[in-house]
Amino acid sequence: MDSIVIHNLRKSYGKGRLPAVDLAGEYRIGKGEMFGIIGPDGAGKTTLFRMLATLVSPESGKAEIEGLDIVKDYRKIRTILGYMPDRFSLYPDLSVKENLEFFASVFGQSIDRNSSLIENIYCRLRPFENRMAGKLSGGMKQKLALCCSLIHSPSVLFLDEPTTGVDPSSRRELWENLAHLKANGMTIVVSTAYMDEADRCDRVAMMKEGKFLAVDSPRAIVSKFDRKLISVRSDEMFRLLNDLRSMDVVEKCYTFGDSHHMVLKPDARTDAGGIASVLEQDFGHRNVSVSEISATLEDCYMNLEDK
After folding, report:
1. CATH code for the domain in which residue 139 is found
2. Full residue range of the structural domain in which residue 262 is found
3. Mean pLDDT along residues 288-303
4. Considering 32, 172, 204, 230, which has the largest number of Cβ atoms within 10 A of its Cβ?
5. Cβ burial 39-53 (10 Å sphere, 16+ → b, else e)
6. Which has the closest alpha carbon to 66: 173, 196, 158?
7. In angstroms, what is the C-alpha Rg of the chain?
8. pTM beyond 0.85
9. Angle of helix 138-150 relative to helix 96-106, nearest 10 degrees?
10. 25 half-sphere exposure, CB direction, 13 A CA radius
């Protein structure tokens, strides 16, 4: 059964500007699925979330949440939807407990009624429940925002880059909590810039300039990478990047952490050893390290975005 169905959804801001979201075709997200959206700032993730959360009306196309139209049935959708935006949007001058009580009351609920849903998250907040929300750390703000998004027991949960700016421990705890919610049948749609988080999703959509470049499971997307991928390092990394890009056998080259990743052209008749020899003998690089590697989701995104 599908929890979310998107048909040709489009939204733009002003004439002459590229649409913020331009999803041609149909996309379906199953009930109880963990669906990730990967993309840089400006890709359209937040606009898409706001449309699906009934906060912004689409320019054209339509979408359904649990069989309800995001335009015609927006009031009903808001009762079954949890939404955690990309920025902390709770009341900083209310305490932790007051924020939670307020959001529960908006939906005609009480904290006690749905306490089981948030207990494993709120237990970390309880010692600070009288502290003003604006005085919390980034990780504690994240936990409070998630609790407020869940207090009415939604069927679908949207989280827009929920781990940006929080510590690694809070990131890990959030994904443990999401796994628990998913196990109990909740549909979760989350955007993230962290590829290790995207690997936790059942399927991911790679998004750029309002479009989905690919939609599949992380493993399936990686398995479709059909180029030879080489990792390269030397003493002069800046010059190395320019030199690699000047080589005829290179289709694409980009910085990846402490190394450069280069994608060889399909007809390239060389390997890691050949690349190392050229860099040392023709370009004069020292302490060259070259190895063939397997692609990651980030490599797949980098090589999909220009197609």
Report:
1. 3.40.50.300
2. 225-304
3. 93
4. 204
5. beeebbbbbbbbbbb
6. 158
7. 23
8. yes
9. 20
10. 8
